[in-house]
Amino acid sequence: MEDSLKKMDAESDDPPIGNGQATTAPAPQTTQGGEGRIIGWVRNLLPVRQQNSDDTLRDAIEELIEEEDSAPQSSVAAHERMLISNILELRDLPVVDVMVPRADIVALNVNAPKEDLYALLQQKPHSRIPVYKDDLDNIIGVINMKDLVTTLTQGTDFEMRDIMRDVLVVSPAMRVMDLLLQMRQSKVHIAFVVDEFGGIDGLITINDLIAAIVGEIDDEFDFDIAPQLIERPDGSAIVDARMPLTDFEERYGDLFTEDEEHEEADTLGGLVSYIAGRVPARGELIKHDSGLEFEVIDADPRRIMRLRIRNLPKKQGTSE
Fold first, then answer.
1. Which CATH superfamily is domain 96-214 in?
2. Do 97 and 179 contact (CB within 8 A), yes or no?
3. Is 140 exposed, middle or buried (0-12, 13-18, 19+ CB in 10 A)?
4. What confidence tens digit (pLDDT) does each residue in 240-276 have?
5. CATH number of the domain at 229-310, please?
6. Are 151 and 158 in contact (CB under 8 A)?
7. Residue 205: which of 226, 185, 180, 228 has the closest Cα?
8. What is the residue extent of each domain of the chain?
């Protein structure tokens, strides 16, 4: 009997699982590449009941994550569950949700002198600078700082066209995971998102795609400036439209409805667009139920940049 059992074990290629039952799932084939090996490995981690059910592998993983979240002592760390969840969401996440909007793009005209390029890099040291001809909707390439440094150390004269690299152009509906794969294959790490008319909506770098998985990545060269609010002698204020509603309310009290306005907008500019039902033009005056009046000082067809706010209440913590 013992000899028969040993013979049966030797002939079986399937490893035992849990109570000694063998799984019917085939071992991952090495010919499938890295992705196939990972999927096969994940399949082997799943309970037998999930492998044999009609649920997809994705649903099974999501169910396991939910079970781990509710477990009193989870064997999977919280940050690991976050990473797995973010990766699963990439399939349905469009690039428009993670791109840098048009108003924040830092670019340079191809006919600008090299001194303008150096001055721009001193103010905003990006690793890649888009180059356009005539206007931003006509992007013709990008300057990589590695190429610029190499050229400068060689001491050779150059024009911006000489060191430009090609860029990718993608639709705003393209999925993040598809763009990540395209960037890996093309070795181009910056793409421009264009609308149906060919206008530039924004740009996206490989760092933006990675941030969608692991969260925001700050480094020693980050130079974001907090949105400014300048109070005027007449009682009004000039405000950067990027200022978050929460920061504004910390200064002037609760002015916006939590159940509606905070859900529809995060910034003052977004709130004004929400009230107007569109992006208002420069010079328009938008009134809020709290008595605040928002005058649009600077805007383009896509976004409000600066506002003048009148009828401001007194700051929190101040007295008569």
1. CBS-domain (3.10.580.10)
2. no
3. middle
4. 888 888 888 888 888 887 666 667 788 898 899 988 9
5. 3.30.465.10
6. yes
7. 180
8. 27-76, 96-214, 229-310
